[in-house]
Specification:
Number of domains of chain B: 2
Largest interface: A-B, 23 and 29 residues
Structural class of chain A: alpha+beta
Structural class of chain B: mainly alpha
Number of helices of chain B: 8
CATH superfamily of chain A: Winged helix-like DNA-binding domain superfamily/Winged helix DNA-binding domain
Number of domains of chain A: 1
Order of helices and strands of chain A: HEHHEEH
Strand order of the largest sheet of chain B: 1-2
Largest sheet of chain A: 3 strands, antiparallel
Distance between the termini of chain A: 33 Å
Shape of chain A: globular
Helix content of chain B: 55-70%
CATH class of chain A: Mainly Alpha
Strand order of the largest sheet of chain A: 1-3-2
Oligomer: heterodimer
Strand content of chain B: 5-15%
Order of helices and strands of chain B: HHHHHHEEHEEH
Radius of gyration of chain A: 15 Å
Chain lengths: 109, 220
């Protein structure tokens, strides 16, 4: 647990979009998927996960519907909308550009 | 962009109109999260009770999660101020004495304000009603050139005669002093003090004022 890092401002939305890019997931699924793709560095708690999910849904980047989970518990599943997928592409490009620039700047001698 | 605006408007509408429904849906969603997390702990070998406890600890305060999620909803600021209003109304209803006091104070305040405004409006902003054509009446004054601020509004009699005789100046010219005069009315012990203003005979016709009884004095 000591290898966890606090989320940078603005990264949570992008991580959620990325986590949902493969398949629809419910809240806990999104949380676990983010943990998995960030190799355990980011663990998102409900206190920040649900506000972000609802905000992204309001912005039209996610759509939600109720469905059955793996152990037959009804849960709210989120999936990317077309606008959400476009947003994911835009933000991914932007983020990679910024992180490349930061790496170049920090590794310069 | 317009798609997104539409989306936001629609969810703001849903949040406002179906508030209880949306709220219940958030309850269900968090409930599902807790159940799924409990199941996860059970698979890791926790007893059902321990699993439940661990899940709730991991979620943190359910109320806080709900609060911060509600903050993300469009139109919720509006809905919560509506709730505040309803709450205020209910607490006012519960203490009628306080409500009556508040209403009285408001009524007094508004009444006093309206009265004073009416008086000031009549005195200062409305043209006097007994004057026929207030917009055609002017008060004459002289001033020194170059805006020295020195000027006067009193004229000697020859100037008055001159102004009066020249129809290019005005249809009618009247003269009146600044200060009032205290005059005795009646005789002996029955005399009363009246406050008067000596004016030229043209004063009343100029204003278009009609006497209530009899007539005004004339020039001769």
């Amino acid at each position: 647990m000591s290898n966890q890092t606090p989320l940078l401002q603005g990264t949570l939305d992008l991580l959620i979009l990325k986590a949902l890019s493969l398949q629809p997931l419910h809240g806990l699924g999104v949380s676990r998927r983010i943990e998995q793709i960030s190799k355990g560095v980011y663990v998102v708690r409900p206190g920040s996960l649900f506000p972000a999910l609802h905000r992204l849904e309001e912005q039209g980047w996610l759509a939600a519907s109720w469905g059955d989970s793996e152990n037959n518990r009804r849960a709210k599943f989120y999936r990317l909308t077309a606008a959400g997928r476009r947003q994911l592409n835009t933000e991914t490009k932007e983020w990679l550009r910024v992180s490349d620039a930061m790496r170049a700047a920090l590794e310069s001698t | 962009m317009s798609m997104r605006l539409w989306h936001r408007l629609r969810s703001a509408w849903a949040n406002l109109v179906h508030h209880d429904h949306v709220d219940a849906s958030l309850d269900d969603e968090l409930g599902a999260y807790a159940d799924l997390l409990t199941a996860e702990y059970e698979r890791r070998g926790y007893t059902p009770i321990d699993a439940r406890r661990a899940a709730l600890v991991e979620i943190g305060g359910v109320t806080q999660v709900k609060e911060s999620t509600r903050d993300a909803w469009s139109g919720d600021a509006f809905a919560s101020s509506f709730r505040e209003l309803r709450y205020t109304w209910r607490s006012l209803r519960r203490s009628p004495g306080f409500l009556v006091t508040v209403v009285l104070i408001f009524a007094l305040g508004i009444g006093a304000n309206a009265t004073i405004f009416g008086v000031i409006d009549q005195l200062l902003f409305q043209p006097p009603r007994h004057v026929t054509a207030p917009e055609r009446i002017a008060m004459l004054s002289t001033s020194m050139p170059e805006g020295s601020g020195i000027g006067q509004q009193s004229f000697n009699y020859p100037v008055y005669r001159l102004l009066k005789s020249d129809l290019r100046v005005a249809e009618e010219v009247a003269i009146a002093p600044w200060a009032t005069l205290d005059l005795p009315l009646g005789r002996g012990t029955g005399a009363a003090l009246v406050r008067g203003l000596p004016v030229s005979a043209s004063y009343f016709p100029l204003l278009g004022v009609r006497s209530e009884r009899g007539r005004f004095f004339s020039a001769d």
